[in-house]
Amino acid sequence: MEFVADKKTKQPFPPESDFAGRVAQAALKHGLLVYPIQGCVDGISGDHVLIAPPAVITAEQIGWAIEQLRAAIVDARTAA
């Protein structure tokens, strides 16, 4: 999942904000592990997280993961 500071212009967050890292830390507090990655735009700017669910997963577990990721994103935006 890629994150941008402005949806209309697709402007990335400043690299120093470490938005992907903040989302990953917040997700961990919610019990969800994601992989933060930066530099996806130009090698420096751009934030996204990689979600790697198990090969065998239920619809209920997918729903739970989405809820936790949503909460983590809100937490990371609030902490900005």
Describe this structure in words.
This protein has 80 residues and is α+β, with helices and mostly antiparallel strands. It has one domain: Aspartate Aminotransferase, domain 1, CATH 3.90.1150.10. It has helices at 19-29, 59-78, and strands spanning 2-3, 35-38, 47-50.
Give a short account of the largest sheet: 3 strands, antiparallel
Instruction: Report the radius of gyration as a whole number of Å.
Output: 13 Å
What's the CATH H-level superfamily name? Aspartate Aminotransferase, domain 1
CATH fold annotation: Aspartate Aminotransferase, domain 1
The helicity comes to: 25-40%
CATH class division: Alpha Beta
Regions with little confidence, pLDDT below 50 for 5+ residues: none
- Number of helices in the DSSP assignment: 2
Please tally the β strands and state the result.
3
So, CATH architecture?
A: Alpha-Beta Complex
- Mean pLDDT value: 94
Share of residues in strands: 5-15%
Structural class assignment = alpha+beta
Question: Keywords, please?
Answer:
single chain; 80 residues; Aspartate Aminotransferase, domain 1; 3-stranded antiparallel β-sheet; 2 helices
